[in-house]
Amino acid sequence: MTKPQVISHPIAPVFDENSRILILGSFPSVKSRQIGFYYGHPQNRFWPLLARIFSEQTPQTVESQHAFLLRNRIAVWDVIATCRIEGSADSSISDVVPNDLYPILEKADIREIYVNGGTAARLFHKYQEEKSGRQAIRLPSTSPANAGWSFERLLQAWQMIYNSI
């Protein structure tokens, strides 16, 4: 069996000088890579969850999602710059090269870093915690693969991000 090809992260980070929290995933799913933006799988609960937390309509287009993040002072990126991955399976990730968080942390007054799921948490701890001098708060994954967490349970866990802005 051959190893999956090395894939480079194709999506630029979303942030500006007004960003106050940073949400990091592990690596974009196949669907996100296809559309060129974060949390692109229609069953991922990221966008409906954030919309509920910020009392807004769920943004439906890449442009409205980008504007939503900046308006609510949220930066989004992923822990991984390049890796080997089979499809969208975090469990298959290997040969990780982490993203450099310095450009975001230098430009924006990031008060808290949150990681979306266990893989992002583990990789942040391994590759970025010491280098950045920052710790991250692990939140349960919004992925449809995390079916054990209902939307309401995710909402309770993720609500803390609102108070960090």
Care to describe what's here?
Helices cover 35% and strands 19% of the residues. The protein has one domain (6-164): Uracil-DNA Glycosylase, subunit E (3-Layer(aba) Sandwich). It has helices at residues 30-35, 46-53, 62-71, 102-107, 118-127, 129-132, 151-158, 160-164, and strands at 6-8, 21-25, 74-78, 80-84, 94-98, 112-116, 136-139. The chain is built from 8 helices and 7 strands, in the order E-E-H-H-H-E-E-E-H-E-H-H-E-H-H. It has a 4-stranded parallel beta sheet. Strands 1-4-5 form a 3-stranded antiparallel beta sheet, with helices on one face. The radius of gyration is 15 Å and the shape is globular. It starts with 5 loop residues before the first strand and ends with a helix. The protein is an alpha/beta fold.
Keywords:
single chain, 165 residues, alpha/beta, Uracil-DNA Glycosylase, subunit E, four-stranded parallel beta sheet, three-stranded antiparallel beta sheet, 7 strands
List the helices and strands and how they pair.
Elements: E1 6-8, E2 21-25, H1 30-35, H2 46-53, H3 62-71, E3 74-78, E4 80-84, E5 94-98, H4 102-107, E6 112-116, H5 118-127, H6 129-132, E7 136-139, H7 151-158, H8 160-164
Parallel strand pairs: 2-3, 2-6, 6-7
Antiparallel strand pairs: 1-4, 4-5
Helix pairs in contact: 2-7
Rough shape?
globular
Query: How many structural domains does the protein architecture include?
Result: 1
Provide the CATH architecture: 3-Layer(aba) Sandwich
Strand portion: 15-25%
Largest sheet, strands/sense/barrel: 4 strands, parallel
> What is the ordering of alpha helices and beta strands?
EEHHHEEEHEHHEHH
- Biggest sheet, strands in spatial order? 3-2-6-7
Q: Please, what is the average pLDDT?
A: 95
Number of separate strands: 7
For the record, the CATH class is Alpha Beta
Task: Kindly report the name of the CATH homologous superfamily.
Answer: Uracil-DNA glycosylase-like domain
Radius of gyration: 15 Å
- The helix content is 25-40%
Helix tally equals 8
Q: What's the CATH topology label?
A: Uracil-DNA Glycosylase, subunit E
Name the structural class. alpha/beta
| First-to-last CA distance | 47 Å
